Amino acid sequence: MLSEIMQSALNEQIKVEAESSQIYLAMASWAEVKGFEGIATFMFKQSDEERQHMLKLVKYVNQRGGHAVISALEEPRLDYTSFKTLFTQLYRHEVRVSECINILVDISLSEKDYATHNFLQWYVSEQIEEEATARVILDKIDLIGDDKGGLYLFDNDMKNFSATGHNIVQ
Ligand code: OFO
User: Fold this and answer.
1) Which of 168, 103, 105 is nearest to 134 (CA)?
2) Contact call for residues 139 and 87 (beta carbons, < 8 A)
3) CATH, residue 86
4) Does 52 belong to an annotated binding site?
5) 20 to 30 Å CA-CA from 28: which of 40, 66, 99, 130?
6) Which domain holds residue 42?
7) Would you put residue 28 in left (φ > 0), alpha (ψ -120 to 50) or beta?
8) Does residue 12 fall inside a structural domain?
9) Is 164 part of a structural domain of the chain?
10) How far is the centre of ligand 1, averaged over its atoms, from the C-alpha of 134 (Å)?
11) Which residues of the chain fall short of a pLDDT of 70?
């Protein structure tokens, strides 16, 4: 059984993951309209993954005798001036999500909820991957600079780039 404190903290995280999914969906739509097919594919995939992160939490809360709450979401407020800005926002967002996960881990320990602590380790690892992915992409963008050919190749490579496999051309 989850404590009240643990349940409400997990419910907060359900919202964070759902908002992450919305943010990446908005980014995907922007990239698609702009003709960045690879970036759009990557962002759609990211959006789906965040929804899976949310569902995993929903199932867990309900399985532990709690009630997963599905709440209203903030509209994503993004700066669409360039895809570099977009990826910088993605990186900052993932850093914020990692902070949220760390707070959850702290709560699980103070509540002596070792099952939840164990469950959260998956998210801890996932965040290491996602922050690393965002950093790798930002480094690539810096390398490309204003080179149009490089940008074309970058967009193409993004189709096959995922948080769990850094298979972009080096
Ligand atoms: Fe990338 O946020 Fe989920 O965990």
Assistant:
1) 168
2) no
3) 1.20.1260.10
4) no
5) 99
6) 4-72+79-159
7) alpha
8) yes
9) no
10) 12
11) 162-170
